Amino acid sequence: MQFSCTPSWTTGEKAGEIKDVAGGEILHNFTIDVEETEIPEVTSVSPNKATLDELTTFTVTGEALPSTLALWIKDCENVTSLGGTSTSMQFSCTPSWTTGEKAGEIKDVAGGEILHNFTIDVEETEIPEVTSVSPNKATLDELTTFTVTGEALPSTLALWIKDCENVTSLGGTSTSMQFSCTPSWTTGEKDGEVKDELGGTVLKKFTVNVSESGGSDPEESFTCTSGDQTAMWNGREWQRCDDGNTYLWQEAKDYCDNLVLGGYFDWRLPTNDELRDLVVCTNGTPTPLAVYPDDSSVPYSCGSHNSASYDRPTIDSSFVCKSEPYWSLSPYSKDTSYTLTVDFDYGWSSRENPNTVHTYVRCVR
Fold this sequence. Notes:
By secondary structure, the chain is mainly β. The protein is built from 2 helices and 23 strands. It is elongated, with a radius of gyration of 31 Å. The relative contact order is 0.10.
């Protein structure tokens, strides 16, 4: 059987009895401990930024949060409670109408007492932009990896190249994504498109020159003075030696796009992740290293500037390399006017001005 009542007046241990009837025989004695009512407290609401017209989940943290907790943000439509615990609850809504700073409130119940005031900054939806697709050459019937670079690239990005079969997204970031496919059927110039999603808006049109596989060897653009022309590393084929010249970024990209090496045309400038994958720290520092100075939780170099505890250049001995920076294809995500390089003296990755800095290049396919 169940009974209800409201503990009142004071806290502490309270005596209780169960009787067969009111005023009758005591069947059971017990006690209950009456505690002070916990006062709900909100300590934070996150995130403090959102994108206009994008459904956003907000997390409220605190203590003794009631299940009736309510969230309100100015111009944030269709607020929905996603539930949670007494220390963390979530809500979703869609920032609408205008950008800018929006006031928000957390209440114990809808229409109840305000527990916390906060603001969020609503920003304009970023428009995806594609700046390049590389390489611009490929070999008939050979699986080829194409790298798309730009800004605000969505995870739904789609690539199409005429007669290139089995297009597969290899993933990436908001500034660099990769796809693979196999040029088939015929050689020649093939049209290509990058869309924000399958069947969506065309972000960039481009062409790829597909050449016959086999046949006579093409004239080499550059050869190593000794040893092999290329080196394999973690499943990718690399230019084993750089050509000893330094370039502005666009010159470096053009160099790779036009490189003929080892009988192949489809060389390209590597992404920052691919280039960082070449770094070897002989003192045991774990790799890949962080992009300096973005992630302090991961080492960003093999050692200090004057450290003698590791071998330079910081790359496998099968490569011929300078202890200098090398260009990547990837823009710096926090300021895309800069481009990332990998320095094989310390092993770190840092940003450089692509229009003023001359440095080295190593191509990949």
